[in-house]
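Cont'd.
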Amino acid sequence: MNENILIVEDEQELCMTLGDRLRSEGYVVDFAADGASGLDKATQLPYDLIVLDIMLPLRSGLDLCIDIRRAGMDTPILLLTARSQTVDKVVGLKLGADDYVTKPFDTLELMARIEVLLRRGRNKIEAASSNRPDQYKFGSLVLDVRKSRVTRGGEPVNLTAREFQLLCYFFEHPGETLSREELLREVWGHRGRTFTRTVDVHVASLRQKLESDVKKPGLILTIPGIGYKLQG
Ligand code: CA
């Protein structure tokens, strides 16, 4: 799965150089050239990492740091600081940034730090999944956790990575009413109510793929006004 990186920086040349480099390493790269659009993107799309310059038009990188964390997002943030902004580094880390690199930076060093932050994120996901059983069964449906595979009556069902994680979470909590907010937090890593529609879209897609009658779901039930429940 390709990891998504957002670069928030107003220096176009730096964006191009860094963007090319990251793409050549297989990352998917997106850009924002000022603090306002940076905040919009950072809080509306699920990135795996945000590279955030401190000196930005409209809103500083430090303000953005606060806003992103306040929005409940725990996406790793790597700050770019100028040599003269020593104080800002310390402040930035306190405000929720995970690491910083001083400009002008060595690309290799930056790439190494990005890799460390992304690996940390991946390890978190793996640690969360290490206590799971290997398999879940529901009627003719079998979810193989280790192989990340789902079969229905022995036939493989094609799920996206996120659909699979969502289905896993339902199977880990059979018969429990799960709110959209909880699903968003546990499966997507978001806090708040901003993206609750995302949950509905994914549940609808799971139903399309798993239910015999989408209008009368027998697996994932809708709990009106709250969220969903796996038939226990
Ligand atoms: Ca800048």
